[in-house]
Amino acid sequence: MNAADAVTDALRELHTRYAGLRDGRLADYIPQLALADPGAFGLALVSMDGHRYSTGDADLPFTVQSVSKPFVYALALSLLGLDEVCRWVGAEPSGEAFNAISLEPDTGRPANAMVNAGAIVTTALVPDTRDAPRFDRILGFLGRFAGRRLDVDEQVYASEALTGDRNRALAYLVRSAGPLPVDPVAAVETYFRQCAVRVTALDLAAMAATLANGGVNPLTGDAVVPEPVAAHVLAVMATCGMYDVSGDWLLRVGLPAKSGVSGGLIAAGPARFGLATYSPLLDPAGTSVRGHLAIDALSERFGLHLMHNPALAASTVTMVTTADDLPAAPAGERERAHHERVAVVAAQGALDFTAAERVLYALDESGPQETAAVVLDLRPVTDIDTVARAMLRSGLDRLTAGGRRVAVADPAGRLVEEGDEAGAARRFASREEAVDWCASGRAG
Ligand code: GLU
Q1: Number of structural domains in the chain
Q2: Which of 40, 222, 258, 403 is the most buried (most CB within 10 A)?
Q3: For ligand 1, which residues put their CB under 6 angstroms from it?
Q4: Any idea of the CA torsion for 65, 67, 72, 77, to the nearest 10 degrees?
């Protein structure tokens, strides 16, 4: 094995570790799936920058099966909105197998869109018009997630259409229970076709990466779904994507995921990566045995568990002091007498909610009793997101409303833009100028 890069090396190592494992069984309730090569094993990862990493049979086509469900759910959410979709399909983990009769007793509403009953209703919710037939919409949409045109494995479709009576029965049950605006029975055949769409592990990694990337395909730049839709789909994947083992999966692996009976498995690291494996030998919950082990190991190795976010070692606030402790600009000597009255707080890095809270806390602690003015030095800050900007601006407004002079050293205009000094805080290119302005205010 030649050394490639850290990610490919990790994928190769996992491939080598688990390739020899023969545990699990091929799904055979759809007869064509039992013809899969039990030795096939591929892994792929797509980053938010669209970098693709893969090993093993990552280019081998197989049918998407239930891994289609989150993407068709995304389509329904984009077309109808969250509230409308939730009227017909719930978002509660059923704790049951993929083909269970998970219907609310009083309304007949399926528990969630990841179990078959909910997925069939979701497919039924996709509008079916002469110009845009339901299946064409779905196929085109799945292709946009993958970043290429996809097609259908007609043999697998025919095989499931011949044997899919349980899914038909589920659809009849749903229809008998509630006043659905659409016909789930008519949609079952479309659901079978959707499950028979052919993909590779690399396609699935790109599809998962698109969800992780706020709905924008990192390979093509295509904004496939709005960011809130991607977030909602990931949330349902996290709680329901692995059927009756969803809780254990979230506990141990800690990533939104979706399994399928043909052996595909995806996991998404929000804002980080899309990951997919293919290996058709399944455990009793219908999860790929090797895929499960590989993703679990990768999560452990790279610290990918969503809830595992140890406090960042890098500090946001680098300094809290008063200006008399800092070197003054020559022009500022005049005001030097007042420098002990000017607090200085410096921050660095990318500012989000957590970082903004730290900065605001430091500003509050910077001595409201003793200092009449405060300088917020943002020069080493690399980015401020919209949440942090709103928090900081209102925090600064509060300080000025409390009678303090506030100046921001912000040459790049990240917090206070050019010509936008609506707030009471003044912007300066350097810390010295900001300090002098604050001190001269006192002097004057
Ligand atoms: N087409 C399959 C079914 O409905 C998908 C199930 C799965 O992948 O979990 O039975």
Answers
A1: 2
A2: 258
A3: 65-66, 98-99, 116, 160, 167, 195, 260-261, 286
A4: 150
